[in-house]
Amino acid sequence: xxxxxxxxxxxxxxxxxxxxxxxxxxxxxxxxxxxxxxxxxxxxxxxxxxxxxxxxxxxxxxxxxxxxxxxxxxxxxxxxxxxxxxxxxxxxxxxxxxxxxxxxxxxxxxxxxxxxxxxxxxxxxxxxxxxxxxxxxxxxxxxxxxxxxxxxxxxxxxxxxxxxxxxxxxxxxxxxxxxxxxxxxxxxxxxxxxxxxxxxxxxxxxxxxxxxxxxxxxxxxxxxxxxxxxxxxxxxxxxxxxxxxxxxxxxxxxxxxxxxxxxxxxxxxxxxxxxxxxxxxxxxxxxxxxxxxxxxxxx
Amino acid sequence: xxxxxxxxxxxxxxxxxxxxxxxxxxxxxxxxxxxxxxxxxxxxxxxxxxxxxxxxxxxxxxxxxxxxxxxxxxxxxxxxxxxxxxxxxxxxxxxxxxxxxxxxxxxxxxxxxxxxxxxxxxxxxxxxxxxxxxxxxxxxxxxxxxxxxxxxxxxxxxxxxxxxxxxxxxxxxxxxxxxxxxxxxxxxxxxxxxxxxxxxxxxxxxxxxxxxxxxxxxxxxxxxxxxxxxxxxxxxxxxxxxxxxxxxxxxxxxxxxxxxxxxxxxxxxxxxxxxxxxxxxxxxxxxxxxxxxxxxxxxxxxxxxxxxxxxxxxxxxxxxxxxxxxxxxxxxxxxxxxxxxxxxxxxxxxxxxxxxxxxxxxxxxxxxxxxxxxxxxxxxxxxxxxxxxxxxxxxxxxxxxx
Lengths: 299, 402
Ligand SMILES: Cc1ncc(C[n+]2csc(CCOP(=O)(O)OP(=O)(O)O)c2C)c(N)n1
Ligand code: SF4
Ligand SMILES: [Mg+2]
Known about the structure:
CATH superfamily of chain A: Thiamin diphosphate (ThDP)-binding fold, Pyr/PP domains
Strand order of the largest sheet of chain A: 2-1-3-4-6-5-7-8
Number of helices of chain B: 13
CATH class of the largest domain in chain B: Alpha Beta
Largest interface: A-B, 45 and 46 residues
Low-confidence stretches of chain A: none
Strand content of chain B: 15-25%
CATH topology of the largest domain in chain B: Rossmann fold
Distance between the termini of chain B: 56 Å
Order of helices and strands of chain A: HEHEHEHHEHEHEHHEEHHH
CATH class of chain A: Alpha Beta
Bound molecules: thiamine diphosphate, iron/sulfur cluster, magnesium ion
CATH superfamily of the largest domain in chain B: Thiamin diphosphate (ThDP)-binding fold, Pyr/PP domains
Largest sheet of chain A: 8 strands, mixed
Largest sheet of chain B: 7 strands, mixed
Structural class of chain B: alpha/beta
Mean pLDDT of chain A: 97
Number of helices of chain A: 12
Helix content of chain B: 25-40%
Helix content of chain A: 25-40%
Distance between the termini of chain A: 35 Å
Structural class of chain A: alpha/beta
Radius of gyration of chain B: 21 Å
Radius of gyration of chain A: 18 Å
CATH topology of chain A: Rossmann fold
CATH architecture of chain A: 3-Layer(aba) Sandwich
Shape of chain A: globular
Mean pLDDT of chain B: 97
Oligomer: heterodimer
């Protein structure tokens, strides 16, 4: 076992047997995130797969205090928790808002932008499985070009994914990072770091989702790795405006061994209707983003 | 010793919130509420009120902030009007469903489209089924006093309270208000002690998904299903009239002012014709009663202070023996009639006291209604009632309907 695995908090905050699907990338990521965040944390979450993972009343597998909220309100809820704790002089508790891509890119964007602009002292986590999975794999603005969803069932999604990281960076927040459950130590480190920083911190999790992406549950870790290795899901952090690749993306940037996106796409049923033109466009789009990140990493 | 100052309804509301020692305020500006948000910001930035003010980007977030801050045990306050209240709609249900003692002022204003900034009560009336207690005030003193009372009620019933008062008519009109002594206010309303707070010391998942039926927990104890939780909210609201009345009585003991828990009366004792309504239109009706009395009609007023929970039993008592009721409402349930009219008529269903009820829609979007016009309407109805017309279609007062 690599030495740095030992530094991970051995305590579990999610009991086995959650209501998430087999092979759910979110359960992996959430497990490591909570290990890093530890006890003195309050989570707020909207309607989404995580809400289901948290169980059906009166039982929950999660041992961190959590507040469920309406779909549009996650970051506002975090603002309320922060204000309430502040008013009661309980400022040692970390407030963490966690929502899906739908609850972040789409409906929750107003509340999140407001909370970030106010510099609210909290960690916002978007777990991005690239669609509205809880309601049955509908398209969101995080769904990539060429993907089949239940609301793009024949023609596939015609637009690129919204570059939400740019939107968050434009808020000049204290910390911004991306992470993947396929690179748990990198993910863990970023949460540990975020917990120590004051102000608005945003962590973006790329979450492979077997039923939504149409691949076998056993391949979740592999799918997460391919997302990183093709440059579709670059791992980085931005602190005080300084961009830094991390983990696998860092070595890729050094060695220049980025894989073509087809290696990732061909393993997922959701891309089976993608045509050659879309494939070309997506590769071009990913190349452009990667170049931009490369430039920034060299600044 | 009294401390009477001349102030607007919004100022009175801000002082009410300050004297309630609210700990978190989140509000978004909208006419005619804006001044209230501004005054509270001043209190907080000026150090007069020790509270967190969250300058949210919209009303949905304003109420969400209150919901979450209340969940960790803070006393919270917000205020809005018209479209702002409607924008909160989802969270109004969320607040009541979470059983949180949130207090909000609704500075009543007509709802768009088309736009109006002026007063009616369509905004709060259309939110009546969200599980909130609704109290309507008739003057600025009552606004201030009701906010303090509202926290006591909310924190005892575990239901949110909406303190409603008419935009401009009260919000921007100067009236003398006796400011309660802060010490006395603190004795009347001690700091909030929540029965459950979300905290790392006692981790739990609040407001999770429920199945239709009751389910056992890990100890085998059957826990509520969704329906049991809804029943408990309803049961709490059904019990709340007693709490509202008791709070009003205690307030009167301490501060010497009784705004009449569920309703109030004016020249009601021997009245045969009773005018009724909520908020400033009911207080205008007092003058109309005087006019009618001078003409020899035994007129009086019952002002309905609490619309939800609807105090049906209490109102049957309040209207005991009257021979005619005339309702003035600043809102309507489109496609039928005024919501208060329906509720009041239903309260008499099956009882021996069958009284003619005539209903008037008045003052929508700030249309002026004078006491003289209320008196004219009530007199016309009274004559019709005496010639046997117990029911007639809703009349739109001061409105060209040709
Ligand atoms: C106001 C509102 N509209 C719609 C919904 C239905 N809804 C619940 S979860 C969800 C999608 C969630 O998608 P995402 O945020 O990406 O999370 P995921 O389910 O993928 O984990 C939707 C549309 C809702 N709960 N509230
Ligand atoms: S749909 Fe996807 S994200 Fe949701 S629980 Fe299942 S695997 Fe996880
Ligand atoms: Mg999603």
